[in-house]
Design brief:
The structure is a single chain. The radius of gyration is 19 Å and the shape is globular. The protein has 2 domains: about 5-70; about 75-195, Double Stranded RNA Binding Domain. It has about 200 residues and is of the alpha+beta class. The strands form 2 sheets. The chain has a 3-stranded antiparallel β-sheet with strand order 1-2-3. It is built from 5 helices and 6 strands; from the N terminus they run H-H-H-E-E-E-H-E-E-E-H.
């Protein structure tokens, strides 16, 4: 019996923590991605981090990593560390560490929930307070160990930027998405200044 006889178009190789760089590169090519060696290396590092958390890594997980890596503009802000304390008998608190222009900055924020506390900490670190137009979280795959993919849309000076982040911890995914949106706004504001000067 072949996979095709039961409706499966091809045999899927399960990717896990023991999969090598070559297997990941082959899988990315099979999915239709034409990536440089440097991009494959960055994606492989992210894959290994994910494979340490998840038992199996699906195509959708790989595609989420590819999207997140490709959507990164020049990064002024970079995620380093997040610790969140939340519950019914405590004030939600997020302790955040980020790189801002290459310098390590740490701050804590409070909020009505863990996501609000996380976003408050990011705003304090970056000294920004852009209106949040949209926030959404979806599971990339099924199962309790699924990656969460967060989407954040921020607005500044009539322009908006969408950031995305993926991670098995939805709070980390949310923080990465917010930071990604901030970096995109930075890139947009530089682009606007270039047009004004020209």
């Amino acid at each position: 019996m072949t996979p095709q006889s039961v409706g499966i178009s091809e045999t899927r190789i399960v990717l896990g923590k023991h999969s090598g760089r070559h297997a990941i590169a082959d899988r990315l090519r099979a999915l239709g991605y034409g990536l440089t060696e440097e991009e494959i290396n960055r994606i492989f590092i992210r894959f290994k981090e994910l494979a340490d958390v998840k038992k199996e890594v699906f195509d959708e997980d790989l595609e989420a990593i590819v999207y997140e890596e490709s959507s990164r503009s020049a990064e002024r802000y970079r995620f380093v560390y997040l610790n969140v304390v939340s519950g019914t008998a405590t004030v939600p608190t997020a302790t955040m560490q980020m790189e801002v222009d290459g310098k390590m900055v740490q701050e804590a924020g409070f909020g009505v929930g863990p996501v609000d506390a996380t976003f408050t900490a990011i705003r304090k670190i970056t000294k920004t307070d852009y209106p949040l137009l949209k926030y959404a979280v979806n599971a990339v795959t099924g199962g309790t160990d699924a990656q969460g993919e967060a989407t954040v849309q921020l607005k500044f000076n009539g322009r908006s930027a969408v950031g995305r982040g993926a991670h098995p911890d939805v709070l980390v995914a949310s923080a990465k998405a917010y930071i990604n949106a901030l970096n995109r706004l930075e890139w947009l504001s530089k682009d606007i200044k270039k047009v004004e000067v020209a």
